[in-house]
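User: What would this chain look like folded?
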Amino acid sequence: MQTLAQIKREGRCIISKIDGSRTLVRRLAELGMVRGKVVTVIATADSNSGLLIYFQGQRLAVSPEMAECIEVLDLGSLDDKDLVSLDSIPLKKSGVVVRLNGSKELRRRLMDMGLTRNTIVTVQQVAPLGDPVELTLRGYKLSLRKSEAANIMVKEASL
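Assistant: Here's the prediction, encoded as structure tokens.
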């Protein structure tokens, strides 16, 4: 993982964790800046100046100290290499959805359930016989058959 201050190029990132004081975490949460949200880096930080981000329709200037407290996953680094299917993710581990495979109807159904590109998914439970798999995404729990989960390609991330 890297912090927002360590990002050296413009582009989109997913917030994976916010460290810092309780007041900082609360203030950022009031803005909607919580785990799983996407921010776009418009201008990277120079030596001691802050960086400029685009978040939920607003441009925000972030100080270097605050940017050090925000851990992100660079979406520019999510390519087709190192992808694994969701059914092979270990219990209590997370991943970011990169691609959906399968028939057009299955892809549409998975997208209707909230499994879209750049969505953070955590494997919560697996049934005793391995099928179905319970996932947490977007604040709710979803159970999928293992055969359906095999069509979801993710990039493992420690979120």
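The chain has a mean pLDDT of 87. If you want, I can go into more detail on any region.
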